[in-house]
Write a structure and sequence with these properties.
Blueprint (H helix, E strand, L loop, with lengths): L2 E11 L1 H4 L6 H6 L13 E6 L6 E5 L7 H9 L1 E9 L15 E3 L2 E9 L6 H6 L3 H4 L7 H11 L6 H19 L5 E8 L4 E7 L8 E4 L6 E4 L11 E2 L4 E5 L4 E5 L5
Antiparallel strand pairs: 1-4, 1-10, 2-3, 2-4, 5-6, 6-7, 7-8, 8-12, 9-10, 9-11, 12-13
Length: 259
């Protein structure tokens, strides 16, 4: 399982989420507290929004804790909306193309979890993508495929419904050709103006997901696990939930995958 963090609000330096906190994302890459895998060393990535519609993207195969460029970039770059991810592979190769976040046009996407038995039906999964979306396929992960399929399903106009339909189609493939647990996931996705997330599992063990409004910055962080343990006001996103996240709050709605 991976660890990730996202932020929306007044512009801040990326290091304030990724590097500076006691249990920052870089710290979690080496010693995660609430993940199946304590170490998340199979690469990392950043996607951030600035003056352009499309996000900036930096991904690397090195562990986050050992890449000096990450700390330099995070210290220098400020953003009002960004995502960061540290990867623990569930079977895919360690390569830049398999590192999160994934970007297509102005959309960015990252995922923590698994689709059970994915590599046994990867060909069928790729065949669900339109030619236009498949042209954007760079890596070999289930995460990227779900993202592209959600775009095919109408992510621009209906983020919750599109992600539910894409997840449902993958869950159906896993039930037919894969293995349990069929789906475990938390995802974050953004078009540069809005930030969304979902938490879901086909069993009773969805990955963890929390949010909190920063008293210091006025924005809101969305994280796999709390960034600091001495402040107890992190709120868990409930299972089977889709949410739109703003600096002021989190709007929850049911998340029910449908094939």
């Amino acid at each position: 399982m991976c660890r990730w963090a996202a932020y929306i609000g007044p512009s801040i330096r990326i290091e304030e989420i990724v590097c500076a906190p006691r249990q920052s994302l870089v710290a979690q890459s080496l010693h995660a507290r609430e993940a199946k895998s304590e170490t998340n060393g199979d690469g990392f990535g950043l996607a951030w929004y600035g003056d352009l519609d499309e996000p900036g993207l930096y991904r690397e195969v090195l562990p986050a804790w050992s890449d000096c460029n990450l700390r330099s970039i995070a210290r220098q770059v400020s953003s009002r909306l960004f995502m960061a991810h540290v990867r623990a592979s569930t079977g895919g190769a360690t390569s830049r193309d398999n590192c999160h976040p994934f970007v297509c046009g102005r959309w960015s996407f990252m995922h923590n979890g698994q689709i059970g038995g994915y590599h046994g039906f990867r060909r069928q999964a790729d065949m669900m993508l339109s030619d236009a979306r498949y042209a954007h396929r760079r890596g070999a992960t289930d995460s990227e495929a779900i993202f592209l399929l959600a775009l095919d399903e109408g992510l621009e106009d209906d983020p919750c419904g599109a992600l539910a339909r894409a997840t449902g189609r993958f869950e159906a493939l896993s039930r037919a050709h894969g293995a349990a647990p069929h789906v475990r996931m938390t995802v974050a996705l953004s078009d540069g103006a809005r930030l969304f997330c979902a938490r879901y599992a086909s069993d009773d063990h969805p990955p963890t997901l929390y949010h909190r409004r920063s008293r210091r910055f006025g924005g809101r962080a969305l994280v796999s696990e709390p960034l600091d343990l001495d402040e107890g006001d992190w709120e868990a996103v409930p299972p089977s939930t889709f949410a739109e996240v703003t600096p002021e709050g989190v709007t929850l709605s049911p998340f029910r995958p449908c094939a």
